[in-house]
Write a structure and sequence with these properties.
This protein is mostly helical. 68% of the residues lie in helices and 8% in strands. The protein has a two-stranded antiparallel ribbon with strand order 1-2. Strand 1 and strand 2 form a beta hairpin. Helix 3 crosses helix 6. The chain is extended and about 70 Å long.
């Protein structure tokens, strides 16, 4: 346990960082949204998809949000955008080596989520039941 605490402390350390923010906080500020993760996962699954193909795979994302997400991921060096000088222009997206290394981490997270899905659902159900019981006690005056 002490080793984990030490490692977490190292990760969260802000002293001496160029921008005064720990690396995790800086990364999450750009990446912690539901769309970025789904885009990276789909780019790991598809081979150089075009914009509309990617939009069709990321269920629920708007055209504008996909554009914003792709630009952010490109800015962070996680994806590359290739424009072909054709009529009409064709644009394809790929994970960079940096994005591929992030995909490896995300696949581990996906494995963890799959393994623990039942336990998480059970915990949510228990929480909702306890919350409902608390609310009933409050409304009764208990």
């Amino acid at each position: 346990m002490l080793d984990k605490q030490k490692k977490v402390a190292e990760i969260l350390e802000v002293t001496g960082k160029a921008n005064g923010v720990c690396p995790v906080q800086d990364f999450l500020a750009h990446f912690a949204n539901k769309w970025s993760m789904l885009v990276v996962l789909n780019l790991g699954h598809l081979e150089s998809p075009r914009f509309n193909e990617l939009k069709g795979k990321v269920v629920g994302i708007s055209q504008r949000m996909l554009t914003v997400t792709l630009r952010s991921l490109e800015r962070d060096g996680l994806i590359s955008r290739r424009l072909y000088a054709e009529v009409p222009p064709r644009v394809e997206y790929q994970l960079t080596p940096l994005g591929g290394s992030l995909l490896d981490v995300m696949m581990s997270l996906g494995d963890w989520a799959s393994v623990n899905q039942v336990e998480i659902a059970k915990a949510r159900k228990n929480f909702e039941r306890r919350s409902k019981n608390r609310m009933e006690k409050i409304s009764v005056g208990g």
